Amino acid sequence: MTTKQLIDQIRKKQSFLCIGLDVDINKIPKHLLEEDDPIFAFNKAIIDATHHLCVAYKPNTAFYEAYGIKGWQALEKTINYLNENHPEIYTIADAKRGDIGNTSSMYAKAFFEDLGFDSVTVAPYMGKDSVEPFLAFQDKHTILLALTSNQGAFDFQTLSVNGQELYKEVLSISKSWKNSENLMYVVGATKAEFLADIRKIIPNSFLLVPGVGAQGGNLQDVCKYGMNDSVGLLINSSRGIIYASQNLDFAEAAAKKAEDLQSQMAVILSQ
Ligand SMILES: O=c1ccn([C@@H]2O[C@H](COP(=O)(O)O)[C@@H](O)[C@H]2O)c(=O)[nH]1
C-alpha cells in the first residue's frame, strides 16, 4: 500500500487506529482452544468485529514464533485473511529485524514477498546497509525503531552522540538513505513529550506509536505533538483492545474498546 492510499483510508474511516494482534494462548477464551487453529480463530473474530474501526493491524511476530510451525501458519493465515478480505487495511509485521545486507534482504523477502505485509519494523542499530535492503521494496514501508515505549529506551536511545541524542541521530541520518521515502518510525506513546522535537527532524514521516492502553500512553498528548498535515500517525493498541474480555463476548468487547479510540480520533480529526 502506498502512503497516499493509507492517508486516504485514514480520512475515509476517520481513524488512525492500529490494532495489535499479540495473541497469547493463555489469554484467549477457552472455547477457542477446541478449534483447529485457535490463534487464527481468535484473530479472525477480532478482525471481523473491528476492521471498520481501524486502518491497520500489527501482529507482533514473537507471539507466533513462540508456537513454532503452528504459530507461523497462524500468522500466514491471518495476513492472507486480511489481504484477501480487507485489501484496504494496512498491515505491519512487528518483527524488529535487521542484519548484514544479504540477511536483511532475506528478511525483507520473507515479510514483503512471501507473507505480503505492507511494512515491517526494523532495528537501526546495524546501520544503513542493514536497512537499505528493506527500503528497496516499492510501496512497502520499513518502520525504524527511533524512541521506543519501554523504560529501557533511556539506556541507549537518549545517550548523546555527535552532540545530540542517539534517537535523533537515527532520525537525521536515516533521512539520507536511498529510498528513505519508504521509511516510517516507531515512537512510543509514553514518550509524547519528545514528539515536538521529533517533528522538527521528520515533519512529514509517518510514526507508528505503540503504548496507548496497557502501557498508559495518552492519545491526546500524542496527537497534540505528533500529528502533521497528513495525520502522520498510526496509534497502536494491542492488549487494551484484544483482551477487553476473555469470555464469549470477547470480539464485541474488543470492538467497543476500538470504537472508543476511533471516536476520540474522529473528534481530533474534526478539530
Ligand atoms: O517501542 C515499542 C515498539 C513496539 N512495541 C510493540 O507494540 C505492542 C504494544 O502492545 P500493548 O499491548 O498495546 O502494550 C507490542 O507488540 C510491543 O511489542 C511497543 O510496545 N513499544
From TrEMBL:
<comment type="similarity">
    <text>Belongs to the OMP decarboxylase family. Type 2 subfamily.</text>
</comment>
<dbReference type="InterPro" id="IPR001754">
    <property type="entry name" value="OMPdeCOase_dom"/>
</dbReference>
<keyword id="KW-0665">Pyrimidine biosynthesis</keyword>
<dbReference type="InterPro" id="IPR013785">
    <property type="entry name" value="Aldolase_TIM"/>
</dbReference>
<dbReference type="Pfam" id="PF00215">
    <property type="entry name" value="OMPdecase"/>
</dbReference>
<dbReference type="GO" id="GO:0004590">
    <property type="term" value="F:orotidine-5'-phosphate decarboxylase activity"/>
</dbReference>
<feature type="domain" description="Orotidine 5'-phosphate decarboxylase">
    <location>
        <begin position="16"/>
        <end position="254"/>
    </location>
</feature>
<protein>
    <recommendedName>
        <fullName>Orotidine 5'-phosphate decarboxylase</fullName>
        <ecNumber>4.1.1.23</ecNumber>
    </recommendedName>
</protein>
<feature type="active site" description="Proton donor">
    <location>
        <position position="96"/>
    </location>
</feature>
<comment type="pathway">
    <text>Pyrimidine metabolism; UMP biosynthesis via de novo pathway; UMP from orotate: step 2/2.</text>
</comment>
<dbReference type="InterPro" id="IPR011995">
    <property type="entry name" value="OMPdecase_type-2"/>
</dbReference>
<keyword id="KW-0456">Lyase</keyword>
<keyword id="KW-0210">Decarboxylase</keyword>
<dbReference type="InterPro" id="IPR011060">
    <property type="entry name" value="RibuloseP-bd_barrel"/>
</dbReference>
